[in-house]
Amino acid sequence: MNSPSQAQIIKFLKLSNDVGKRAISLGHHPFGAVLVAPDHETVLLTQCNMDTVNHAESTLARIAATNYPAEYLWQCTLYTAVEPCCMCSGTIYWANIGRVVYGMTEEKLLECTGNHDENPTMSVSSAYVFSHCQKEVELIGPVPELEDEIAELQNSFWSKR
């Protein structure tokens, strides 16, 4: 399975951050996910965060699993501005999505949210979850070039709550 180029990584992480902005406009937390086809160009799905148990990544993974064959999804890439939490990482694995790219770590998200009741961040990395899977999900991130841009959206949102 060939990996996306750095330009593709930047492009789709920016799109996932834009989907997070769309989530805010819909009254949700600022998280978004993008599923890209094996050609590294075709956007198959985008998904906003819905609520505390329907995160953008897990909701997208469930929709993808009901609409695409598992073998196809294994060749796809899920992009998300913020590292998937352990719940989302598990759902991505069970949906058979073979690659995840994230821009900013869950640890950095905690710096943005603090001890916020609406986002009690867990300190379980996606790398930890994926390291316990039977199949190896390719994990790319964080992407330092975008961390400030992603953190800006998160800080802006959480400082007003």
Automatic annotation (TrEMBL):
Limits of the CMP/dCMP-type deaminase domain: 7-117
CDD domains: nucleoside_deaminase
GO BP terms: purine nucleoside catabolic process
Name of the protein in its database record: tRNA-specific adenosine deaminase
Record flagged with keyword Metal-binding: no
Species the sequence originates in: Acinetobacter bouvetii
Enzyme class: hydrolase
Coiled coil (UniProt feature): none
Pfam families according to UniProt: dCMP_cyt_deam_1
Keywords from the named record: Hydrolase
Enzyme Commission (EC) number: 3.5.4.33
Source organism phylogeny: Bacteria, Pseudomonadati, Pseudomonadota, Gammaproteobacteria, Moraxellales
Entry superkingdom: Bacteria
Recorded GO MF terms: guanosine deaminase activity; tRNA-specific adenosine-34 deaminase activity
Signal peptide limits: none
Annotated InterPro entries: CMP_dCMP_dom (IPR002125), Cytidine_deaminase-like (IPR016193)
